[in-house]
Every structure is written in C-alpha cells, then in structure tokens.
TrEMBL record:
<keyword id="KW-0808">Transferase</keyword>
<feature type="transmembrane region" description="Helical">
    <location>
        <begin position="62"/>
        <end position="88"/>
    </location>
</feature>
<dbReference type="GO" id="GO:0008168">
    <property type="term" value="F:methyltransferase activity"/>
</dbReference>
<keyword id="KW-0489">Methyltransferase</keyword>
<protein>
    <submittedName>
        <fullName>Protein-S-isoprenylcysteine O-methyltransferase Ste14</fullName>
    </submittedName>
</protein>
<keyword id="KW-0812">Transmembrane</keyword>
<keyword id="KW-1133">Transmembrane helix</keyword>
<feature type="transmembrane region" description="Helical">
    <location>
        <begin position="19"/>
        <end position="41"/>
    </location>
</feature>
<dbReference type="InterPro" id="IPR007318">
    <property type="entry name" value="Phopholipid_MeTrfase"/>
</dbReference>
<feature type="transmembrane region" description="Helical">
    <location>
        <begin position="100"/>
        <end position="124"/>
    </location>
</feature>
<keyword id="KW-0472">Membrane</keyword>
<dbReference type="GO" id="GO:0032259">
    <property type="term" value="P:methylation"/>
</dbReference>
<dbReference type="Pfam" id="PF04191">
    <property type="entry name" value="PEMT"/>
</dbReference>
<dbReference type="GO" id="GO:0012505">
    <property type="term" value="C:endomembrane system"/>
</dbReference>
<feature type="transmembrane region" description="Helical">
    <location>
        <begin position="172"/>
        <end position="189"/>
    </location>
</feature>
<feature type="transmembrane region" description="Helical">
    <location>
        <begin position="145"/>
        <end position="166"/>
    </location>
</feature>
C-alpha cells in the first residue's frame, strides 16, 4: 500500500508539472489568437488597422516579427517538453531558479494577460489600430477596461512576457521580458505625445483621471 500511494503521488506531481510547463505556450498562443482573430474580422469589415500608408510595403519589420514569433514559440514548445530541439544556444536556455512562488506568480500573470486582452479588444471594438497615423485615427476609447488603465493593451503584453519569464526564468525569456518592458514604455511616451496632439482636450481630460498603467 505505501508503494502504491507513493506511485500515485509521484504520478500526480509529474502530471501537475507537465500542465505547468504547457501554460506559457497555451497562454502565448491564445493571446496571439485573440489579437489575430479581431484583426482579421475588422479587416474583413474594411477597417484599416495599420499605421502604414495604404501602398507602402510591410518591409523588414514584418520579417523580424515573424522571426521573433517562430523563435519564441519554438522555445516555449521546447520548454513544454513537446520537442527536444531548441534553436537557441545553450547559454540562453538554462533555468536560473525554480522557486514555486515565481512559477505561481507567472501563471497568474499569464492568465491575467489574456483576460486583460479580452477586455481590451472588447472595449476597442472598431478602434483597434497598430502604430500611430494621424490619417487613420480611431475613436478615443475611455470606457470598459480603459476606465481604469490608459494602456490595457500594453499592460496585457507586459503581463504575458513577465509571466512567461517567471515560469521559465531563463536568460532568453528574462531578456525578452526586460526588452519588452522598456520598449513598450518608450512607445507609450511617444504615443502620449501623439494623443495629446491629435485628440486635444478630450485626451488631456482623460489622462487626468486615468493612470498610464493602472
């Protein structure tokens, strides 16, 4: 009986660990899927989402985005144990710590990121835009989740990448997380200047009552 009980405990623990390893991958793909589906639906309705001019080429930024998505997804699949090949060098792959509190915190952030994105896309409706273009302005959204955060879209992205880096604290994921936090903050500062210039008093009054992040 003790042997059977021990075996059951070991099996339960192993099963739990396997589920934990899958959460970052599933969370990341679900996050991207939410954005992709909403973008597809809006484009089918004739909404122009990109800040680029109509006849401009997508260029190197799209290539880099696709490359990043493939590398990042490959590493998540590798860490989930679904494949045994990683395209990253060994120095970027080892876990720097394995504390359970970090793992739990990471899972919570990943779940919150998907919830935030769901609420954000629901609030944006037809106003979803990628980039800054004064000739392609959407309606200034101040309701829903935007009533307590001016940047829930970016807050969701930050939660996702920080969450993944807590579940898998490798040099690669930690570096990506830090770069994401810095680059998004810099873009938000740029976006705020754009919003003040193009939305005027409406955005100024909104910014007085709602914080940048939360």
């Amino acid at each position: 009986m003790p042997g059977i009980f021990c075996f059951q405990n070991c099996f339960t623990y192993f099963y739990f660990v396997e589920i934990i390893r899958l959460i970052p991958l599933v969370g990341f793909l679900l996050f991207c899927l939410q954005i992709g589906i909403r973008a597809f639906v809006l484009q089918r309705k004739g909404t122009r989402l990109s800040a680029r001019k109509k006849h401009s080429s997508k260029g190197i930024s799209t290539v880099l985005l696709i490359a990043f998505f493939l590398v990042f997804t490959n590493e998540l699949v590798y860490k989930a144990g679904l494949i045994h090949i990683s395209i990253l060098p060994e120095v970027l792959r080892p876990l720097l710590t394995g504390k359970i509190i970090l793992t739990i915190s990471g899972i919570v952030l990943i779940l919150l990121s998907n919830l935030f994105m769901l609420l954000t896309l629901r609030a944006l409706k037809q106003s979803l835009r990628f980039g800054l273009n004064k000739e392609n302005l959407g309606k200034l959204v101040t309701s829903g989740i935007y009533a307590w955060s001016r940047n829930p879209f970016f807050l969701a992205i930050n939660c996702l990448f920080v969450g993944i880096s807590l579940v898998f604290p490798t040099p690669f994921f930690i570096t990506i997380s830090l770069l994401t936090l810095v680059s998004i903050h810099l873009f938000i500062l740029k976006e705020e200047r754009f919003m003040h210039k193009n939305y005027g008093e409406e955005y100024k009054n909104y910014a007085k009552t709602v914080r940048r992040y939360f």
